Amino acid sequence: MPRILIVRPENESDDQPRSFIERARRAQIVRAAVETIAEVGFAKASFARIAARAGISAGLISYHFAGKDELIGQVAADIKEAMDRAIGERAAGAGSYLAALRAVIGGFVHYCAEHRAEMYALREIAANGGPVEQDDAVGQLAGMLRDGQEHGEFREFSPRLMALTLNAALEAVPRELYSRADTDAAAYADELASTFERAVRREGLRRRG
Amino acid sequence: MPRILIVRPENESDDQPRSFIERARRAQIVRAAVETIAEVGFAKASFARIAARAGISAGLISYHFAGKDELIGQVAADIKEAMDRAIGERAAGAGSYLAALRAVIGGFVHYCAEHRAEMYALREIAANGGPVEQDDAVGQLAGMLRDGQEHGEFREFSPRLMALTLNAALEAVPRELYSRADTDAAAYADELASTFERAVRREGLRRRG
User: Fold this and answer.
1) Domains, in order of start, for chain A
2) Of the four listed, A89, A125, B69, B78, which is most buried by Cβ atoms within 10 Å?
3) Chain A CB contacts of B139 below 8 Å
4) Angstrom distance (rounded) from CA A61 to CA A48
5) B171 touches B114 (CB < 8 A)
6) A131 contacts: CB under 8 Å, gap ≥ 6
7) Among A157, A161, A192, whose Cβ lies nearest the Cβ of B165?
8) pLDDT, tens digit, for every residue of A73-101?
9) Does A178 touch chain B (CB under 8 A)?
């Protein structure tokens, strides 16, 4: 789930400085891991398979990552960071809380549609008890909704319960997109955004245009 | 998830007629099974434990149920039937599609709040690959939403995508109710009903009162 409106510098999660070569190599390995998990599942994604896909030796992966847990943790963190950045960039230009909410919802649906391997890998990792850092998506959505209320754009409601409902609606998106090939992502994004726009806006406020 | 607005006769799922005593005994065993699963989990809910809770012999369970699969299947079917009946009764008296939608949403939240053992058992059964019959909750909600559109109460939207969103929102209810003890079920029901009322009703339509 998106970490809303927070765009972090690219390497904030790294503890120590790494050379350009080192970072490029790690990124290459992570990319191969995503594709391998998406193709053969979490359980079968061994260093050997990932190395074969990357065209390097398994020993080189071991040089960069202490073990599967560290690699998988990096995979999950990278996927989430890229998703957050993409959605955050869409929302950052919004001129109102309502527009930001639409941008977040639309951004998430489009991101899912365009990054199937990443979303599938993330689900595989979570489903297999992998080291997925739990970001508090509900808490972050609730904060955004509360801000919109305080600025008078949104009606009165429980920010937590609305955030829970929105988060549940977003979590249902990937399965529908991937299991029904005829689903139109743009239409889904628009429907979902309209649903929550109507749910949160103050009575009497109408969207222009 | 509720099988919306369909209230079935009590014993429709039974293939052959059973005596009153036999049905009472089966209901007693099912009740003990629900409580046992809720207490010790699916894996540990053996005939021996269920029998102990019911105060009968394990052999008597075997007389009534061919095996754990049949018993668990009956448990899941009974829970769903009772839930559907409770929600259906609330919705049946509704004078409009909007009122029926509110009744279904409110009925589901209240049912979850008042039947923790059943909801927990149902989740345990599903999570452990037990024989839970897949009713098409999304399809049934979509049908109800489409009817409301055809009767001019609801605005234009994709019934399937709205039903997916509503179903996801309902599926998030039990965990929130059970994991946060301070959650007010009545407030949750009202918030959720208001969210979807606003999402589906036609522009210009306002709830009276």
Assistant:
1) 18-65 (1.10.10.60), 80-200 (1.10.357.10)
2) A125
3) none
4) 9
5) no
6) A69, A72, A73, A76, A125
7) A192
8) 999 999 999 999 999 998 888 999 999 99
9) no
